[in-house]
Design a protein that fits this description.
Blueprint lengths: L5 H4 L4 H20 L2 H8 L4 H28 L2 H5 L1 H31 L2 E2 L13 E2 L3 H6 L3 H17 L2 H12 L6 H13 L2 H12 L5 H10 E5 L5 E5 L13 H26 L3 H9 L5 H11 L1 H16 L3 H6 L11 H9 L7 H33 L1
Antiparallel strand pairs: 1-2, 3-4
Helix pairs in contact: 2-4, 3-4, 6-19, 8-13, 8-16, 9-13, 10-13, 11-13, 13-16, 16-19, 18-19
Length: about 400
């Protein structure tokens, strides 16, 4: 029995490709046909809400069939068979790239386009968009808005103070990188804040800051309060001065929220550095000791250079977390008091959908400014990563 020739082995499988193309065409046609109204008549469902679930599953099934048929179609082509090593990775990335395009890239450009309009987020009774093109009007209002500058200033405070998480995380990691009894328990305790939801962290600190019953109030009472009997005969606490209301003071609210956000961020940086410390070359440590390096010299000249990748990731994640801070503000102050703790992300939400404002165009302008600021940092970090890759080669 003769083996197939090279040309036959790399030839297009015409039958498979044709069948796959037909299946793709049928699935795409069915996806256009399967609307909520169409499914209502097909399934004899009278209520629209009742038809959403079967419609969703039918659409997902058709989409999966189309993707499977597309995979079969591509793998049947002669081009794929001749360039399998180069094309195969892109096939695995294709679904993720499509979803990333639909749910990230497209909304970014939609938000940028909305920033040039005046729109309340609603459609008319016929489903027609009710927005109006206003050009750069939203940006002119934005740069005349004192609340925007307050939010931008608070973002800068977040960016500066959040960077404290990196050296503190390093210090704790160095402290915990020991082989002593019970060290795993201490590592778990320090790591615990990172696994807590940001909303839960915000609630914990909001209660701790409460001037009536919070932890800060209890500590304050140890030094500045005493218990007295009032005219009714009940015990009451008298403080001089009164406990500070951190979240109720426009001068301290932002710093109180940043302190709450630092708690889990320090834990995250600590984990990054602990991972890096476990990968440090013991030979370099011994060579440093032989050369007389110890303490600060050992840390600076031997350990820190080997922790450069962990430091890079910690800085990137910390910067992005500081710029996109939202949930802590939403949980603890909702931007108050008097908008003094707003950041760009929360101010965008507040203008677009919060408090019934409905200024989608203006909120999109704020989102665009925040996106451009983050783009500068992300582009720089990506460039640094590329330079490191080039040097490693």
């Amino acid at each position: 029995m003769t083996s197939p020739s090279v040309s036959d082995r790399f030839a297009t499988s015409k039958t498979r490709a044709l069948v796959a193309a037909v299946v793709i065409a049928l699935c795409l046609y069915a996806l256009q046909f399967v609307t909520i109204d169409g499914m209502q008549s097909l399934l004899d469902v009278t209520r629209q809400s009742a038809a959403r679930v079967p419609t969703f599953f039918v659409r997902i099934t058709l989409l999966l069939c189309a993707l499977a048929a597309a995979f079969i179609f591509i793998t049947s082509l002669s081009f794929y068979k001749r360039n399998k090593v180069a094309v195969a990775p892109w096939l695995f990335l294709f679904v993720g790239l499509v979803l990333f395009m639909i749910y990230v890239i497209v909304p970014i450009f939609q938000s940028i386009s909305y920033s040039f309009t005046r729109w309340d987020g609603l459609y008319d009774i016929n489903g027609v968009w009710t927005g109006k093109w206003v050009g750069f009007h939203n940006y002119k209002l934005l740069f005349q808005d004192p609340n925007f500058y307050t939010s931008l200033k608070n973002n800068l405070w977040w960016l500066v103070l959040f960077m404290l998480a990196v050296p503190i995380g390093l210090f704790i990691a160095l402290f915990l990188n020991q082989t002593v009894t019970g060290i795993r328990i201490y590592k778990s305790l320090f790591f615990f804040p990172f696994v807590i939801s940001q909303v839960v962290v915000g609630l914990i600190f909001a209660w701790a800051y409460n001037p009536e019953f919070g932890l800060l109030s209890e500590i304050w009472s140890w030094f500045f309060c005493e218990t007295k009997t009032n005219i009714v005969g009940n015990l009451t606490r008298v403080c001089s001065p009164e406990p500070p209301s951190i979240l109720g003071d426009e001068n301290t609210a932002t710093f109180g929220i940043i302190a709450a956000g630092l708690w889990p961020q320090i834990a995250y940086c600590m984990i990054l550095y602990l991972t890096g410390l476990n990968n440090i070359s013991s030979d370099q440590i011994e060579a440093g000791r032989l050369d007389g390096a110890k303490g600060w010299k050992m840390l600076r000249h031997v350990i820190l250079p080997q922790l450069k990748p962990a430091t890079f990731i910690a800085i990137v994640v910390t910067v992005i977390g500081a710029l996109r801070s939202f949930d802590m503000i939403a949980t603890m102050t909702q931007g108050g008091p008097f908008g003094s703790s707003n950041v760009l992300a929360y101010y965008m939400y507040d203008q677009a959908v919060g408090e019934g404002v409905g200024r989608y165009g203006y909120g999109s302008a704020i989102a665009t400014v925040l996106f451009l600021i983050m783009l500068v940092y992300i582009s720089y970090f990506l460039w640094r990563m590329y330079q490191d890759e080039v040097e490693a080669r």
